[in-house]
Amino acid sequence: MMMEGKNKKIALIILLFLGLPAIFPVCFSAANQPQNKKKSAPPTAANSYGSSVFRVQGNVYPLGYYSVSLNIGRPPKLFELDIDSGSDLTWVQCDAPCNGCTKPADQLYKPNKNLVHCVDQLCAAVHSTASQRCSAPDEQCDYEVKYADHGSSLGVLVHDLFPLRFTNGSVLGPRLAFGCGYDQKFSGSISPPSTAGVLGLGNGKASILSQLHALGLTRNVVGHCLSGQGGGFLFFGDGFIPSSGIVWTPMLPGSVGRHYTSGPAELFINGKSATVKGFNVIFDSGSSYTYLSSQAYKAIINLVSTDLKGKQLKIAAEDQSLPICWKGTKAFKTLNDVKDYFKPLVLSFTKTKNAKLQLPPEAYLIISKHGNVCLGILNGAEAGLGDLNVIGDISLQDKMVIYDNEKQQIGWSPANCDRLPNVDRDYNEGLLQPHAANFGILADQCPASYTI
Known about the structure:
Elements: H1 8-18, E1 22-24, E2 52-59, E3 65-72, E4 77-84, E5 91-93, H2 121-126, E6 142-146, E7 152-161, E8 164-165, E9 171-173, E10 175-185, E11 197-200, H3 208-214, E12 221-226, E13 232-236, E14 247-250, E15 260-269, E16 272-273, E17 279-283, E18 290-292, H4 294-308, E19 314-315, E20 325-327, E21 345-349, E22 356-359, E23 365-367, E24 373-375, E25 377-379, E26 390-391, H5 393-396, E27 399-404, E28 409-414, H6 426-429
Parallel strand pairs: 4-11, 5-10, 17-26, 18-25
Antiparallel strand pairs: 1-9, 2-3, 2-13, 3-4, 5-11, 6-7, 7-10, 8-9, 12-13, 12-27, 14-28, 15-16, 15-17, 15-21, 19-20, 20-24, 21-22, 23-24, 27-28
Active site: 84, 284
Family: Belongs to the peptidase A1 family.
GO molecular function, one term: aspartic-type endopeptidase activity
């Protein structure tokens, strides 16, 4: 979901505002955890950075989003959050007079004298317009997030503890700021997601990633691996980046809003130029599908339609799953049934040698519940995006995608997203075994105590 419109001294101010992290004792069974050769000190601003990995749930179709579950508060309470690299503020549905809340009251976040005040630095980070400015420093910090699909969240900024387990075995509870949303609006006829809120992964100062980095807990790097079969994983920090095989392209300086933008790019279909050149793209894990400007979209439709002439596919106008669907002589069961009808697409980033984002048919098609094949590339102008080009989840599946805010670059590589990283071996040997199932979050039953 993209938002409409995005020195040591600053980091120190944020650090003082958030306070020193609360330390959680490790309460995982030693038999289930990777064995470290030597005990590691918890990551702090004064020593090494850590990494944390989280299991992802969800799919592109029919669910329409990917999510992670995070514990927040004391005692910890679990919240399922839609992962969104197209916005930076994390928010959860608030236990207050609430409009547009989809969760029952016992699954809402209840603030407890933990409001962020206007004087705090992070309040300014969520106030993008003059109309949102505070009239007094001791006022509560209100926020409003507007998304490009015309959905929104309105609420108040709070701060609370986020129990996180790092790859060196330490478990910390940093005090982080996020939104407590009491007025949510959802667009279109699609039912709102069942998640409790949004985990903003953008590069603004208000994001959870930026706050963790300001505390010295992680590098300013986030990545995700979304499985085409459903699920996957998400990570903070640079501990899971393979030593080779990643294609990197620079982020554009002064990117639109707080989005991860790169370019210019040229579009190819089956190795032939689609005559669409010089456009920038936004990588957005909060968007289920890929959206292209009218020019690029029309080029795709013309070339795909031309290529399908004479083949046993006909327009399925009765299928409203997506704007364009095709039916065969019998219902399709999987994308393997139709892959031979469609050609691979490629986005070639012209300022970086050999930087190509490969999009095989499964990276832009779905099989609908009616057994038809539908195009998961949509006209951005019709969705209110203007000339923006958005690479959504459908085209990011089965790839590790990395947003490196320190080196200002975006990277990707084919990956098996069905297996969680192996913490002991990944630094040198790639993503091999699913040994990290408990990493990232504390289990609900974990009895945590706190040291401030």
